[in-house]
Each structure stands twice: as C-alpha cells, then as structure tokens.
Amino acid sequence: MITSILTGSFLWAGSLITLLLYIVFILAVCVKIIMDNTSASKTLGYLVLIVFLPLFGVILYLSLGVNYRNKAMYDKKLEYNDDLKDKIYEYTKHIENNPQAIDNPVIEQFKRLAHSVSTEDIHWMSLNNDVKLLKNGENKYPEVLKEIAAAKETIHIEYYIVRNDGIGNQIKDLLIKKAREGVKVRFIYDDFGSKKIRGQFAQEMRDAGIEVYAFRKLLFIFWANRVNYRNHRKIIVIDGRVGFVGGINIGDDYINVPGSGKPILRDMHVRLEGYSCYALQHIFLSDWNFCAKQKIEPNAQLFPVDLREEQGKTAVQIVASGPDSPEPYIMNSIIQAIALAKKEVLITTPYFIPTEQILTMLKIAARSQVKVKLLVPERTNSLLVRMASRALYLDLLRAGVEIYHYQKGLIHAKTSVYDRSLAMIGTANMDIRSFDLNFEVNAIMYDREFAEKMTAQYYEDLESSVQVTLEEWEKRPKYKVFADKVVYLASSLL
C-alpha cells in the first residue's frame, strides 16, 4: 500500500516537473522570438502559432524562424565585406557618385532614393552604362552564350537555380570549353535552389578546372532552417566589363517556344556594360569569399581601368541586400521610389506579400492621385502565398490601386517603373522573404528612354491580363475571405 502511494506520488511529481519544464521551455522560446525579431507581424505570427499549437509552433520556429543575422557566420561575412570595400575602393574611387552633382532630371527627381541606398560603398551610382532589356529566356540565353564565348580573362556566375537540362548543359559545356582555353571561371550555385546539379553536373565543371562552390551547403541536420537564408541572386560578370542581372534563372522552362501550347513564363533580365559591372563584381566577390576556400583579392583584371571610357549614357545603381545587410536596402529603395513618384507606379511581381511599410506607401500614392498598378499571376506555384496575397486586395482596391491577373502563364518578372523615368529590374520579389531572408540584387535605371521601354512592355502584358474589380472582390464568399485572412496571419512565415 505504502509502495503504491509512493509510486503514485513520484509519478505525480514527475509529471508536474515535466509540465513545469515544458511551460518554462515554451516561455523561453516566446522570449527569444520577441527579442530576436524586429518585425511586429513576424513576432505576432509565431506567438499566435505557439499559443494555439505550442509544440508545432516551437518546432516550426526553431526550424525556420531563428534569426541567423547575428551568428558567427554572418559576422565573418561582414568582415569579408568590410575588407573588400577598402580594397575595391582603390578601383572605384574615380567614379562620380554624387547624385546632386549630376545634371539629369530623372536623378534630380529621385535623388533622395539614390542617397538613401548609397550609404553603402557597394551601392554607388554610375553614369556610363549601356543597358539592354532582355525579355524572357529565349532572348536572354543567346546574349549570355555570346558573351561567355567572347570572354578573354574571367567569367563569374552566381545563380539561385541552375537546371541539369538543355540550356543548363549548353552553358556548362561552353564554360568547360572556356576554362580549357585558359579563362578563369568561377561558379556559385545555391545549394537549395540548384540541389539537382550537386553531383555529376558540378563535378564535370570541377574536373575541367572551373572553381565551383555551393552557397551555404546543406547538411541534413540543418536542412530546414537553411532553406530560409538562400542566395536568390542571378549574376553574371564577364571580364569585369559585361554583366547580367534579373529574374531569369538557368533552365529550359524559361524558354518560350511559339506554338508549343505550354503556358508562357514571362520574365525580365538586363545586360549591362559599364561601371555598373564593378558593383556586380563587388557583390560576386563578397559572396565568393564567404563560401569559397580560396579568397579573391581585387585587381585590375576584375576591375579594368579602361572602363573609364564611356560605354553608354544610362545612370545605373546596383542595390543588394540580404541577411548580412545592416538595412533592407532593396525594400527601402522601393519605398522611396513610390514616395517620389508623381504620376504612375507600375509593379510586376510573382509573389506579393509586401511589408506593412510598402502596403501603406502604395495606398497613400493611390489616394494622392498617383496611378498605381499591380500585375501578378492568376496562379502561382504556392497556394498559401496566393491566399495571403489576396487577403490584401480589398484594402488596396478601395484605396484606388489597380490589380491585374496575368492569364497566359506565370509572370515571374520582378520589375517596377516610376513616372516612366525610373525602372527597377532584379531578383527581389515583392515579399517579406526577399526583403528580409534572402540574398537579393536589383538594378535601378535612372533613364527615361529605358523606362519608356519598360512601360511599353508593362502595358503589353496588361493586354494578356484581367483586371480585378472592387465590385467583384466585395462579393467574394465569406469563407474565402476568412481563409485568406487566416493564411495572411502567417504571411511572415511563407
């Protein structure tokens, strides 16, 4: 009898201690969430999840939500970045980068934008650029192959997605050929986005003398949390003179074949020639020195001095941001551009879950009689992202924002045009993941002629789109509205 009572007491005490430890653990995780996150919506999202689903919420946060910005690996990357800035400055100090000293009406209108992101030495503005707009993969890849074939000294490639398919192998084979000719080829791929090339594809390049590295190599035990902090950039720099940047990855699915019957994949890229290539080179070197065994020292081969001769007349500012950035520079540049626009804001994005700041700016602009248009796909490859996005429509429509759904396939471009004067093209989606979690890069063109081309393309895409009306959105079934809003509560986790 006594033994039975003692056993029961021990079990009760053990259960109580276990419960107390569980509660303390949950509270400790909640404190960590509050201390780690500066975003109120993100903090609230995780806390709500833990309140309703404690164990699942904790596991999800520890897997996906832990903030790695302050970890040793990023401290190391910041050291590399600072070291690079000082060394690269010797090659870039001659570039005119004071927007106030430039006689350009577009720069005059948007000079606050230029100043707001040029606090980083990497984000200076250059004036001597030739810029070519490349619509879709079928127009981008021939240009890329041509420039790779003409390379004489260095080829630097950094991509989120590289597929082991037709165009992927065509580029790989040409890189191998150039490496065997004596050109120095360096290749960075994201280990999550390009996980299918980790084997034979990458090894074939290494065997030919190409230096190949995965960005933040995935280990099984850390797989989940490293899905967040990915390198979403798409950069090519050839001989330090020609560069490519934009939304188009390397894969056959980006090539649209007339008459194939397949949905169109609409995307946008730019070819750059001029000082803007110095900035792309800087970003590549920063990422290379983070993930490669052998660090690269800046030299005149990577930053050719004869680029001082004028290549073109377009003013370009390259803006990069990521977990190693002290500020979300890409997001800040978009906020400033919206604030400075006087007549028109044209945005294209495949994923639309913006920050509260951008949402507010869009609504203020529309209510201030600025024509604000948003072009997104009818369907994306993520149901939850689509639902979270549509939870925002009603407020935007009531403010006067025009929303369009692209019908011909997936519009994957990440572009915006302001007053037909300033244009942005890059890798950053209009979502929290791009602004806060991934390594991204955008090009800003301060040029009316180029912006007019972008505007014409935008209105051409609108012809293949259907406008969402306030009347139809107000009539949506309540269960759909409720479901969208529930998903939006977790938007910072998507």
TrEMBL record:
Q: Which SMART domains match?
A: PLDc
Predominant location: membrane
> Which EC class does it fall in?
transferase
E.C. number(s) listed in UniProt:
2.7.8.-
Topologically, how does it sit relative to the membrane?
Multi-pass membrane protein
Q: Pfam families this protein is in?
A: PLDc_2 (PF13091), PLDc_N (PF13396)
Q: Name one GO molecular function term.
A: cardiolipin synthase activity
Subcellular localization is given as: Cell membrane
Write out the GO cellular component annotations.
plasma membrane
Catalytic positions?
232, 234, 239, 412, 414, 419
What biological-process terms (Gene Ontology) are attached? cardiolipin biosynthetic process
Keywords per UniProt: Cell membrane, Lipid biosynthesis, Lipid metabolism, Membrane, Phospholipid biosynthesis, Phospholipid metabolism, Repeat, Transferase, Transmembrane, Transmembrane helix
Which ranges does the record mark as transmembrane?
12-31, 43-64
Q: Which reaction is recorded as catalysed by this protein?
A: 2 a 1,2-diacyl-sn-glycero-3-phospho-(1'-sn-glycerol) = a cardiolipin + glycerol
SUPFAM superfamilies, per database record: Phospholipase D/nuclease
Q: Report which residue ranges the record marks as coiled coil.
A: none
* Annotated ranges, domain PLD phosphodiesterase: 227-254, 407-434
* Function statement: Catalyzes the reversible phosphatidyl group transfer from one phosphatidylglycerol molecule to another to form cardiolipin (CL) (diphosphatidylglycerol) and glycerol.
Q: Which family does it belong to?
A: Belongs to the phospholipase D family. Cardiolipin synthase subfamily.
Q: What is this protein called?
A: Cardiolipin synthase
Source organism = Ignatzschineria indica
Q: Which gene encodes it?
A: cls
